[in-house]
Write a structure and sequence with these properties.
The chain is α+β, with helices and mostly antiparallel strands and 566 residues long. Among the domains are: 43 residues, no CATH class; 180 residues, Orthogonal Bundle (hpI Integrase, Chain A), CATH 1.10.443.10; 83 residues, Winged helix-like DNA-binding domain superfamily/Winged helix DNA-binding domain (Arc Repressor Mutant, subunit A, Orthogonal Bundle), CATH 1.10.10.10; 66 residues. It has 18 helices and 17 strands. The N and C termini lie far apart (97 Å).
């Protein structure tokens, strides 16, 4: 049965719908049914308008689609590797959700689309060679869910275009189900790691300025490479971001930002001062060589006059080497995650954070893929909720009974030293104690003595012993303390208040936490600062480099800033 369906828009030849009816007593009846079905399709314009293949569709779509160079190159690669070998000769009109689902299933099975034959080898190169340890039996590896979704979007765009061109009347991919989007798992550096990264980067002031600006603004590396001095208004502390440097292999070009947005970012005074110092260094070097630093010079450049931008891949490689020296597993892109996480934890609204990072969608991408969970923000949230809870009935707290005799044994002296560290916040409730061997090494005691001291702490109710697991500090600040006979009678404790505390090292925030203490008691504040320095991996002997900013719980205005001397 053959029914004329118009002119093929691709081949310009008659488009004929054809079906063969098997012989038999009902052949004439079946033929009539097929004819009616074909005529209805043509009348309702539901029939495929062309016999063009997926290869022809991809050729036209990739040649005409308005795609950024890097995106086009990626699409061409995916089409060549995964779409054309599996669907290239399939007619566009024959595609449906079942074909799409089969394609995704094959991509999840093997990224190399192997033939499932025994003895298949994976060679290190397609050229003639002698096999070595780099060649071996083939192992099927699936494509990642994110890559399969990219392939889905390529086909979706191509078939949407096919609908506009009247190649198909119904988009066959509409009912296909691609893999779910991978869950975001941002892993920004911690505050302590960020401080180490900054300190290491500023060994080269120019490189330090770039890393600092990345951490403060969360800009992409291509955007940082494209910043010119004309984009900076240092008097008003504003950065105007309008371009980025694109790179694909050896090809580099200037382009719009990823979201095609012009962004104006407010800079803090410290960042402005760092950029002023950076500008002074640039001008001094240029003047020494008889050169002039123009307004349109790049802010970050290896050229003395700033005429050439940095290469994004080189920036990423240098940062990776810096992180490897510090034994921190991270990338420069994670600084975007760090900036987003710290801003959200600091109470900045999500739309402002998304605007600074250049995200669209009202902040959806920022929350899903860039913002890591923050224990500090969680602690503040718990504290805020606690202040709004109704008062609970007063209950007598159980006493923590210490020995009534003078401590004589080494393990008793060690237990008292550890007790003091628990009560001054060095070891915080809910967190594990150091291993027994480390406790012994820190206090010049044997492992057996340290073990008995920890057991005594458990008898006092200060720690919880877990077989096969770390010893956990228990919260007991509300319980009265009965001192040992050797200890002087405690003076009347001042009224403690819930405080929000921020620790800074050389002006850079490295930690924040909530504790109860007397904000007017320097001894209390010093003990809290010492505990925070130890928890962050710092050196207590350098306590003069640290400061403790004290807020009343829930307040944004600091009460005082405590600075200790050695």
């Amino acid at each position: 049965m053959r029914v004329y369906a118009g002119i093929d828009p691709v081949t310009k030849r008659p488009n004929v719908l054809t079906e063969t009816i098997p012989p038999g007593p009902n052949a004439e009846k079946l033929a009539e049914q097929v004819k009616v079905n074909f005529l209805n399709q043509v009348y309702e314009k539901r029939n495929p308008r062309t016999k063009a293949t997926v290869n022809q569709l991809l050729d036209k779509y990739l040649a005409e689609a308005e795609l950024e160079f890097n995106t086009r190159d990626i699409y061409v690669g995916y089409a060549k590797k995964h779409i054309r070998p599996l669907l290239g000769e399939t007619k566009v009109g024959a595609l449906d959700a079942g074909v799409m689902d089969s394609l995704y299933a094959e991509l999840r099975r093997c990224r190399d689309h192997c033939k499932k034959t025994k003895g298949q080898m994976d060679h290190r190169t397609t050229r003639e060679h002698e096999c070595d340890h780099r060649c071996g039996p083939h192992e099927c590896r699936p494509l990642s869910a994110s890559t399969i979704r990219q392939i889905h979007f390529i086909l979706q765009g191509a078939l949407r275009a096919a609908g506009r061109w009247k190649w198909v009347t119904v988009n066959p991919i509409a009912d296909a189900v691609p893999p779910a989007a991978p869950k975001g798992n941002p892993r920004p550096p911690s505050a302590a790691q960020a401080a180490r990264i900054i300190n290491e980067a500023f060994k080269d002031p120019d490189w330090g300025a770039l890393v600092w600006l990345t951490m403060v603004t969360g800009h992409r590396r291509g955007e940082l490479c494209a910043i010119r001095w004309s984009h900076l208004d240092l008097d008003n502390g504003v950065l105007h971001l309008e371009k980025a440097i694109g790179q694909r292999g050896a090809k580099k070009w200037e382009k719009d930002t990823k979201a095609h947005q012009d962004r104006r970012i407010t800079l803090d005074p410290e960042t402005v001062e760092i950029l002023r110092e950076h500008l002074t260094r640039f001008q001094t070097r240029a003047a020494a060589l008889g050169l002039e630093l123009r307004d349109d010079a790049y802010v970050f450049s290896l050229a003395p006059d700033g005429s050439k931008h940095l290469i994004p891949d080189s920036v990423g490689q240098r940062y990776r080497k810096l992180a490897e020296r510090l034994e921190i597993k991270t990338t420069i892109h994670k600084l975007r995650h760090y900036s987003a996480t710290e801003l959200i934890a600091g109470g900045v609204d999500i739309r402002t954070v998304a605007g600074r990072l250049g995200h669209g969608g009202g902040g959806t991408t920022t929350l899903r893929a860039y913002t890591a969970w923050s224990s500090e923000a969680d602690q503040r949230a718990a504290g805020t909720l606690a202040t709004r809870m109704p008062a609970r009935p007063t209950m007598a707290a159980p006493a923590i009974e210490f020995p009534n005799h003078d401590p004589k044994s080494p393990y008793e002296h060690l237990a008292i030293a550890l007790r003091d560290q628990i009560l001054d916040g060095t070891f915080q409730p809910g967190l594990p104690l150091p291993p027994v061997k480390q406790i012994g090494a820190d206090h010049n005691a044997s492992a057996g003595t340290a073990q008995r001291a920890v057991k005594l702490l458990a008898d006092w109710g200060l720690v919880e012993l877990n077989s096969g697991r770390r010893t956990i500090v228990k919260y007991a600040a509300a319980a009265p303390i009965i001192p040992t006979a050797a200890e002087a009678p405690a003076a009347t404790a001042p009224a403690a208040k819930p405080l929000d505390l921020e620790v800074r090292h050389l002006g850079t925030p490295i930690a924040s936490f909530r504790a109860e203490a007397d904000p007017s008691d320097n001894a209390d504040l010093r003990a809290l600062l010492v505990g925070a320095i130890r928890r962050s991996g710092g050196d207590v002997t350098e306590i003069a480099d640290y400061e403790l900013v004290v807020h009343l719980a829930g307040s944004t205005s600091p009460m005082t800033t405590f600075v200790a001397t050695k």
